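Justification of computing resources. Each target in the renewal requires a structure prediction run like the one illustrated here; the chain below, 396 residues long, is used simply to show the kind of job we budget for.
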Amino acid sequence: MISHQSATDRGASCFFGLSAALLGLSYCVISMADPDLGWHLAGGEFISRTGSVPRADFINAIQDRWHDYHWLFQLGLFKIYTALGYVGIAVIFGLFSSISFLLGYRVLRSALSPSLSFLFFVLLFLLAQPVWVQRPQTYALVGIALAQYILETRWRFELVTTFLLAIVVSNFHVSWIFIPLLWFGYRVLPRFARKEAFSSMYAWGGCFLLGSAALWSPYGIFGQSNFPDLLLNYAILWDYLFLQPSVKSKVAEMATPFALGGYIGPMLLVFLILIARFVDLRSLKDQPGSFFFFIVSLLLALSSAKYLGLLAVAGLWFLPQYLLRWPVLKKLGEEKALVAATTLIALALSTYLIWKMIERVPNEKRLTRELEEAFPIRECREIGARMAKGEEARIL
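Resulting structure tokens:
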């Protein structure tokens, strides 16, 4: 009976995992009409052509100071575009999303039943969906998730691995700062809770080492000679923290999630009610790292929709660890009715996704048309033509 049940669980895990992967793969056919895509490609073109990161405005003629902290993502994106076109960008993002979603499901599955794992995966996907787009912060999110995985599973060379990961992410997006924050939660906080025996030098030294990751950049020790300029990647953190209200009001993702409309506001409200009703502060002592990161992510997500993806990542570890405290939930995950309902949901979702991918097979002509309809490319080219001789508007 035990072996039969194990085989059933393995089959269910495989089916739900494939459904999660298929959901990620469907991003191959989602429209790429994102206003930021053209600017990221333009940045990558400049870096590829000049062999250096921009330090002045290379798009307009005003030549203001320019800090391109996405430079590594943009260079990679442009290389994909030159080799494979828009179809290549779409397919690689779909594959990246597919692998990420499958790994996310596996994290949940390590603690919950196959059906509950899939239900909570769908919940977290819906939370992250508004910000899961072809932008550097999405790739940085997966880097943050990998850092948390390393700390949760205690890799042998966790500090070295996490440090290298933080360096890469710091050249992708400003959200690299959450990697040293994770270290603080997982390796420093346990010292206060007297739960782990990490030495003071290891815990605090790791924090400072990871905090120095942003120095390893063309905008840091590889490209600056003056001390204040070495801190450019830290200055952008200050800008994010104290963003002017006039700027914040014009950027949709900077608004509160309740201003987005749809299901996000009610979903976060349910999160708050459940946490206020059921979360025991003893969780901070028992699971300080995941609890700390989840609460920080929740507070940030309540202030700005930009952090919804971060909250979803934090939930991958915190929710299973906390939900396992509820015996009724563990028992519910084994109920045949729930398993059957979840299977039907996954089957219907998979069927729909396959149909959509067949209907919208990535096509260079269609993707180009969608982008041209979304962006004022012609107008930008006309502006570029009127610029002074020797200056070129490189709008891709």
